[in-house]
Amino acid sequence: MEMVLSDVKKNGVYHVKQLHALGDLHRHLEDMGFVPGEAITVVSRIGGNLIVNIKGSRVALSAELAKNIVV
Whole-angstrom Cα distance, residue 24 to residue 1? Predict the structure, then answer.
């Protein structure tokens, strides 16, 4: 079953499977570390928006952006 990052629970550890974004958005997500196989830990969820740890950095993502990341 395919699950996107915007649907996951807090404190879970997930791995990037693929990105559904195209063009500049796809490149932007990759530049932030969202590449296949990379581990992501959800630190907090606030109104659908997420703060995640990826590659040793904390990254804030809107719910819209998180829907493009398949885990």
Answer: 27
pLDDT value at residue 19 = 97
Distance CA 63, CA 71 (A): 14
- Please state the rounded mean pLDDT for residues 49-53: 95
Concatenating the DSSP letter of every residue in 2-53 gives --BGGGPPTT-EEE--EE---HHHHHHHHHTT--TT-EEEEEEEETTEEEEE
Query: Is the four-CA dihedral 71, 57, 46, 19 of positive or negative sign?
Result: negative
CATH fold of 5-70, please? SH3 type barrels. (2.30.30)
Boundaries of every domain in the chain? 5-70
